[in-house]
Amino acid sequence: MEKYELLSMMDEPLLEKLFGFCYSRTNDSYEAQELCSDIVYALIRAARSDGEIQSVYPFVWRIARNVYADYCRRRRQRSEQFYEGDAEEVLACLAQGRDGEEDARDADLLAAVYRQISFLTKAYREIMILFYLDGLSAAEIAARQEISETAVWQRLFSARRKVRKEVVEMNEMNETGAKPVAFKPIEYSIIGMGNVSWGDPRTVCTRQFSRHVLWLCRRRPMSAAEIAKELNVPTLYVEEELELLAAGENGQYGLVRRRNSGKYGVNFILFDQKTMKEANRIYQEQIPKICRVLIDFLARHREAYLAFPYRNRNPEWNRILWQQLTVMADAFRVQVEKILKEQYFAGEGEVERPFSVFGYVGRNEGFDRGWNGVYAEHLCGYSRVEAVNVHCRYLRPRFWSGWNLATDPQLQLALRAIDGLGISALTEREKEQAAKAVESGYLYREGEMLYTRILVHDKKEEAGLFEVSRRLRDGYFDREAKEAAGKMAELIRRTVPPYLMAEWRFANELAGLPVVNGVAEAFIEQGILIPPAGGVGTEGCWMSVEPEKESGM
């Protein structure tokens, strides 16, 4: 008969006979199953080769005996790896050698076994350690792990087979099997939005190891074992890293999430460079149109901006524009977001958490823009002072989290000079600080008086500060916003994992990052905005003040 006809004869009775052959020659049913699988595999390979078989059963048993002989030879060579007696005997067997060469070989083998055990997932790794290293019986392990003895033996069998396979492959590969762990640098730009004091998951993603784990989870959900194999790092470390990344800073919001499958996926919008560029182009192609709308709007509403009750003696138009720039430029993105919510993602809902992050692969990419603020209480006659600044490519940030207003003498002089401050009332040291404040843009001088150059308003007027600019969100970009929203919806559906679809608006935030700098650049080129020299100044800065309450008699 032809060899390929052998496949039709591999029925259940033959398999039972093969298993009986294996069971009588091995220690337990698990080893018997393994040996039987090897014999069946050899028979399938033989059936796929050319030629004829004169007598079927002698041929089958000849292959079975040959496979068993190879099995015995391998078992003798590596018996120390799979000895199921006392753990001390296993280690002693591995450590003993007849000469220096054997000692080195056994030491390498022991290291290889330990390494492969470390690559097992937690459930299998613990069983191997308890059985082989701690010397516990299957019954003791079952009691400790609260599982059945059958489960213990099954895990031992699977773990032992995996360790054997990996060690054999490593030995065959020699030096190439022990490749070193080396991470190519990955940079992320991750932006936060909301109340950062609630918990910032970015704080646990500072090492390159963390970033590589995050990147793998971004490409597709992966298990700890899969990540360990990909990065050539023991699973133990990957499991610990995944726990940290999933917990985040507060234990409630992390950069990865555990899926129902037991695998981990990225837990926030993270664009790769290609997707980021594609998303940005959707907004960048609209910037000339956005600028035309804004320029016309400013011409029509200049008096409305100047009518806001600033505390300054002479509020400068250039400073008002820098203050309003971010809200004006963001009006287009807000209108796109409204269309996305109503027409494309109405059924997806939105996330509700105090703080959220979103980002992209890369470093800054020229999207430097932001909004910072700090406050102080009971300073220079005011119960509360808030100092705020916007920053972009043309403005460096002046205030940031942690800035102590009580130790900023120039800003304190600006507070005192809101209604005018006589130079003659200053001490010599204060005059020196005042000169620096004039130079840096906090103050300006008229005769013998100093006045505050930074925009200032009363806290009670806060609600109306951006009232005029917010009108741009209502219908000023209808056609352009609809066009951009359609393109953004298609990109989001194509690139964002389904389980993250509720975070769609953060994808839109990323797409709109270039607009503020694009508008600023266009306004500067047309002479509408004047930037500070070198980006260092107090343009884009303002303060809100709340007077101390007078105590009643």
Summarize the structure in words.
There is one protein chain. This protein is α+β, with helices and mostly antiparallel strands and 553 residues long. It has four domains: 3-77, no CATH class; 81-178, Arc Repressor Mutant, subunit A (Orthogonal Bundle); 188-267, Winged helix-like DNA-binding domain superfamily/Winged helix DNA-binding domain (Arc Repressor Mutant, subunit A, Orthogonal Bundle); 272-553, no CATH class. Helices cover 51% and strands 11% of the residues. The protein is built from 20 helices and twelve strands. The chain has helices spanning 12-23, 29-47, 56-77, 79-82, 87-95, 100-118, 122-133, 138-145, 149-173, 208-219, 224-231, 235-247, 273-284, 287-306, 317-344, 409-416, 428-440, 478-495, 504-511, 514-525, and strands at 188-194, 256-258, 264-266, 270-271, 355-361, 370-379, 382-391, 421-422, 443-446, 449-452, 455-458, 541-547. The protein has a four-stranded mixed beta sheet with strand order 6-7-12-11. The chain has a three-stranded mixed beta sheet with strand order 1-5-4. Strands 8-10-9 form a three-stranded antiparallel beta sheet. Helix 8 crosses helix 9 (149-173) and helix 14 crosses helix 20 (514-525). The longest helix is centred in the middle third of the chain and has 28 residues, at 317-344. The chain is elongated, with a radius of gyration of 35 Å. It starts with 11 loop residues before the first helix and ends in a 6-residue tail after the last strand. Residues 78-102 and 172-181 have low confidence and may be disordered.
